[in-house]
Amino acid sequence: MRITRTVAGRRRRAALVATTGLTATALLLTGCSDSDSSSGSSDANGKITLTVADFGQFGYKESGLFAKYHELHPNITVKEDATADEKVYYPKLLQQLNSGSGLADVQGIEVGRIKEIVDTKADQFADLSKVINVDDWVSWKEKQATTPDGKVIGAGTDIGPMSLCYNTELFKKAGLPTDREEVAAKVAGGWEDYLKLGEEYKQKAPAGTYFMDSASAMFNAVVSSNAQQYYDASGKAIYKDSPSVKQGWNLAAEAADKKLTQGLAQFNDPWTAALRKGTIATVACPAWMAGQISINAGDANKGKWNITTAPGSTAANWGGSFLGVPKSGKNVDEATKLVKWLTAPEQQAAVFKAIGSFPSNKGAYELPDVKNAKLPYFNDAPIGQIYADEAKSIPETVLGPKDGIIKDTISTQINNMEQRGTSPDDAWKAATESIDKAIG
Q: What would the mean pLDDT of 100-116 be, rounded to a whole number?
């Protein structure tokens, strides 16, 4: 979303927003509740309090949606319990599901966790299949939260369609085109073309700069643009033989070997410092990444960045979440109505306008705040059009219960190739041994 919210260690901070002529504002996450999540309640006067537990920044506070819902329903107050780090949030959610207590009326679920929840905890969530119209979402989104017998345990919030962010000032100094259409043409053949562009950049690159920030980010983009990733349709882990994993790994190893990458783990201090100093020429850029770049690169780099379509003809999705309603709540019906409302087109457009999280509900794409959205920081890149077009070409992917663990472990070893000079063979061996221990 947004900002950053996936299992791969990213903390969701803030995003920049851009819309129909209004200046984008970066909204920083100021903190999270220190109270335990618990189901909402009603008092003797019929007043209801609904609790929403989520992680990072879903944008409901920033967009004023909870306050608006209270205006529409004066007897209902919505309270948010936000955990900054999804890696802290998810184990707590599992513990609460296992114990059957402490759950909120509405629980956020990360896309990297949804398969495990569908497979093992679906009976603890209300079925939303009769409440929402799953066809309102991009075709693959609600399928991720649907059980084999047709129960829908989560309504989709945002998605992370992939684009490519690039520093036009560095491109110009390296003799590369800066127009977004011309850059898109240079990488139209896929991520292999992206590395070829990196070699062109390196020939005339300004001293101390690098073509990409992280080969592990490119790896994730490559894998995420394919239908088959870490598991097959039967639920078997196939990451060792997966063509997309092999392609992503080989390209990452090539990038590391050719010194096309600065080798920075995303969202850590050295990465943010590199953005501020202007040493990175390109970043694999899901929708929420624009906010990260604008915040960390700062005002001094405004106008130096642009956004174009991702390499290749098949887009990738990196990120996204769902809202589910635990059956144990005291106000399941009201919580279900809240989830339906929060994930409707108008509300998803409001969140996009507030923090940049791209909607998964297709109805939002024709609303002015999405369709006409541009980012002043990125040379008025028409992100509403770019992301909507990318979303339409994202394949329906096969998810697995431990996708996050596999991806994180491989990313760590790619970082070792970049930063420590670990050989690809040794890095792959270390990754597979660690993954096999973790997933059994």
A: 95
